Amino acid sequence: MKIFNTMTGRKEDFIPIAKDKTGIYACGVTVYDYCHIGHARSAVVFDVIKRYLKHKGLAVKYVRNFTDIDDKIIRRAHEEGVSWDAVAKKYIDEYYVDMDKLGVGRADVEPKATDHIPEMIGVISTLVEKGYAYEVAEGDNKSVYFSVEKFPEYGKLSKKDLKDLLSGARVDVDERKKNPMDFALWKASKEGEPWWESPWGKGRPGWHIECTAMAIKHLGESIDIHGGGADLIFPHHENEIAQSEAYTGKFFARYWVHNGFITIDKEKMSKSLGNFFTIREILEKYDPEVIRLFILSSHYRSPIEFSNEQLRDAESSLDRYYSTLDRIQEFLSHSLDIAQAKAKKASAQTAGELEAALDKFNDRFEEAMDDDFNTAMALGNVFELVREINRFLDSKPCGDTSKLLVERAKDTLHTASSILNLFNRTPEQWNTDLLTSKRIPLTKADIEQKIKDRQSARQDKDWALADSVRKELEEKGILLEDKKDGTGWKVKIV
RNA sequence: GGCGACGUACCCAAGUGGCUAAGGGAGAGGUCUGCAAAACCUCGAUUCAGCGGUUCGAAUCCGCUCGUCGCCUCCA
After folding, report:
1. Protein CA A386 to sugar C1' B29 (Å)
2. How far apart are CA A165 and CA A492, in angstroms?
3. Model confidence pLDDT, tens digit, residues A278-334
4. Could you report the per-residue pLDDT of A453-472, keeping only the tens digit for each?
């Protein structure tokens, strides 16, 4: 299995530190607002990575943190007139609401920064003792900064040179720092801010130190995979490396994995540009699975352009998948009727082709996923198999051998689905859920009643009446499908 | 200014040295159907931003040009 490592800029063979098990640390979110689709991408990508590694037989310990103390949280609390921890709690709860819908599983450990203050203080104290960090008095309290010049490898992840950073620096020169690139490990408390007791008086942790303390506590001093959005490469991950490796004297993470951005009109979606969509805004119009498929339809490192067209494409793909699943179920649930069995045998050719496709599928799926988690390719394979299955079902198959073959196809799809955590509903659920997400003013019972009405019209050969029912439903977004033993319905994808 | 990424059909998107350049959506034609829908079949890039070079062979490697974007400040 190969993973692209930001540190080396290359795909590398994945070899975990310990045999048969692996640890992943992914930087989560700062909880001061609702999550946008960019947060969703990161969460979904690492969710799939975790699931795939488990599928490969590794015991995975996945750690994803919440940053629950930070300037933005404090500011938000002031704006809303509530306590900072109430803000954090609220948005952690909202995070779960969104992510649960998107099929993002819980991490094995979900540490919060404020639960690890003693650990952070421990790391910072050691860094001061070792001479990597220095204290600066601010009133009665002190701040602590990391001295980047003491860590010669500073810049190795983001490929930056300290000299270049300084010449191009847009940061305000801070008199208290020895070097403008030095960053805060511990911030002296200001009036009205939350604080904790420390060897430096009252204060609170800097942003980067929490990940060092929590990753080391929960995964050890050297970990296999550390990841997050590409915007964390600098300075966040660079700083984590500096402080962690200075602290332990060992390498911090073997593979650095970063997901690409979501763009709007080719521009990075970001809070400051205001060009972002929250997950729940999108969920007003689309089923959550649409978002998940949209994300996984591109390689995780590529930028994805966000648009309604893209979401509609993903929706159509899902509908295609569930339609096939429906055909599979229908085929399997019908007992074989003798007349049909006598009629003609399933084309041996299509059966052979489906069998061949199934034989190849698992290997091809894993090959794609083994190649730096290429979910776009893996999904391409899924839809190729879907077409093969449809072809086979079109050939009017019958007999136990056919059933076994279709059973096998169903199982094969199911295995792939569970790794991606997609396509897990029944076609019925998919369609009833679409009634809600598409805001169709009909219930399942309404539709079934209409189908009955139309059925009696059809029995009377009153085609005009039957067609008017079809038309009426279609105008509301419901398509009817006549099959040999009844009429089914589905939500029209426009 | 420094560093980096990307440019594949109408749209999205795989493919990074060699079998017919995956897959999805849209489109055209056909099969099926009371009419439909779904599904399937056929068609659709002699070509991978442009120009040079390396090679028996390149979308894939190298160079240049053009274009787009990102990081260098909080950011998934």
Report:
1. 24
2. 54
3. 999 999 999 999 999 999 999 999 999 999 989 999 999 999 999 999 999 999 987
4. 999 999 999 999 999 999 99
Is the CB of A41 within 7 Å of strand B?
yes
The reply to whether A197 Cβ lies less than 7 angstroms from strand B is: no
- Residues 312-371, chain A, CB closer than 7 Å to nucleic strand B: 312-313, 316-317, 320, 323-324, 327, 368, 371
A431 touches strand B (CB under 7 A): no
User: What is the pLDDT averaged over residues A177-204?
Assistant: 94
- Domain ranges, ordered by start, for chain A: 18-284, 308-428, 440-491
Helix, strand, or coil (residue A298): coil
A463 touches strand B (CB under 7 A): yes
How far, in Å, is the CA of A287 from the C1' of nucleotide B9?
29
Whether nucleic acid strand B comes within 7 Å of the CB of A395, the answer is no
Residue A438 makes CB contacts below 8 A (sequence gap 6+) with A477, A491
Cis peptide before A199 (omega within 30 of 0): no
CA quadruple A189, A191, A193, A198: dihedral sign: positive
A18-284 carries CATH number 3.40.309.10: no
The CA-atom distances, in angstroms, between A90 and each of A13, A44, A194, A288 are 41, 21, 17, 21
* Predicted local distance difference test score (pLDDT) of residue A336: 59
* A308-428, CATH topology level: Isoleucyl-tRNA Synthetase; Domain 1 (1.10.730)
Q: Beta carbon of A76 within 7 Å of strand B?
A: no
Q: Which of A153-167, A178-192, A440-454 has the lowest mean pLDDT?
A: A153-167
